Amino acid sequence: xxxxxxxxxxxxxxxxxxxxxxxxxxxxxxxxxxxxxxxxxxxxxxxxxxxxxxxxxxxxxxxxxxxxxxxxxxxxxxxxxxxxxxxxxxxxxxxxxxxxxxxxxxxxxxxxxxxxxxxxxxxxxxxxxxxxxxxxxxxxxxxxxxxxxxxxxxxxxxxxxxxxxxxxxxxxxxxxxxxxxxxxxxxxxxxxxxxxxxxxxxxxxxxxxxxxxxxxxxxxxxxxxxxxxxxxxxxxxxxxxxxxxxxxxxxxxxxxxxxxxxxxxxxxxxxxxxxxxxxxxxxxxxxxxxxxxxxxxxxxxxxxxxxxxxxxxxxxxxxxxxxxxxxxxxxxxxxxxxxxxxxxxxxxxxxxxxxxxxxxxxxxxxxxxxxxxxxxxxxxxxxxxxxxxxxxxxxxxxxxxxxxxxxxxxxxxxxxxxxxxxxxxxxxxxxxxxxxxxxxxxxxxxxxxxxxxxxxxxxxxxxxxxxxxxxxxxxxxxxxxxxxxxxxxxxxxxxxxxxxxxxxxxxxxxxxxxxxxxxxxxxxxxxxxxxxxxxxxxxxxxxxxx
Length: 546
What we know:
This protein is of the alpha/beta class and about 550 residues long. About 50% of the residues lie in helices and about 15% in strands. α2 (about 45-55) packs across α3 and α18 (about 460-480) packs parallel to α20 (about 515-535).
């Protein structure tokens, strides 16, 4: 909600309290009408109060109108429409006041305090360090990064975390696979496990280690697989970090699953749950009574053979998050983890936390499409397409934007052909071209002089642009609260559209009217800053030339 929206809402709230002794913020809604003939802003509060006050909406609307006309200074006029809508026309200079707000705040424009300091930990990507990051990881990485950008812009105390799945059988298989490739370099055949890793990246790691170390491990069996497991893990993780950095995804914290074992946290959580009476033994296994907290069946923590299920260290991981002082946990998981959510939420509740202290956003599948056909494999390697290959093909901006432009819980057809286009059909090009065009105009215009007020910006196109710039702070806060970066993409497209429409309708540089020229330049500066800030929230560059 913009400052103007918020002020109007406060004015309406005060009027309703004075007239009807009703105080309920949920009843008051203020929005921009789709049709400009219905004003700059509108509210349906009269219809919402009809039952409460036992009056006709039209009568309530007229009473509120009369009160607001006496108390609100920024209004040009108020009208009643239809069954009781109250439509507001603002004084144009009150809308234009946003220009100086944006210019003064610069890159901070959009900041808000929706989060009120809430400590929130967002875990995303968290791929096993056994291979390259692919398309499923790319969507989750972009979405998680954008969520965190929004949260930090909106007053949350946010931590970006990557949980490294580096324990268990898959890591042993990685060690055996790397060793097999290491031995192969020296002409020695070693079988790769049936569930091992056959990728080119593992082969390259084996060759790299062979060149670094020589054939020492061919003659030393003790500790061999553990060494290659650790070496493979570290090299794969290094590549993952490089690819995420290339993709503009930063992390504040990297938590190792193996580290939870090494630090004793996994043993501690079993002991803690035993003492709390949350477990029982049956058929030689240790079970968690998860059905008491809504799960469809109890879950095994320790199998009869003594090995732990994945759930056990995962509970330890989430307890560690709470121990660090984070009161809200958000995980981004793939669609195949949907059934895992109830048991994790049950574990958190069993350990004393609330059912809403953990929320999981499910990432649906991505399908690459080109010329109407699905693209499954890399043309270069014949394997699944990696994040880096996608970015090298269509650019980082397009790779990120297309992934976050649609809600993450919907299936996505990613159109490679569209992403490559240098036309207005491509939403990334359309938005970036708007920014570059503004920069070009400002370069040609010379110096812009800031004013106390901008009272000449009264045309429909100018007012549309001003109102939408005013909306930005509210859109950011809402996108953060709902964890919906796609709302910022929608905002970007609409802001670019309003700019292009304004630019097409008006001459910016008018030698016969230097005052209007300067005010329009101020509007362009505010648009440029707002558009750049919006693009940055989804990790997209704002080029000054194209």
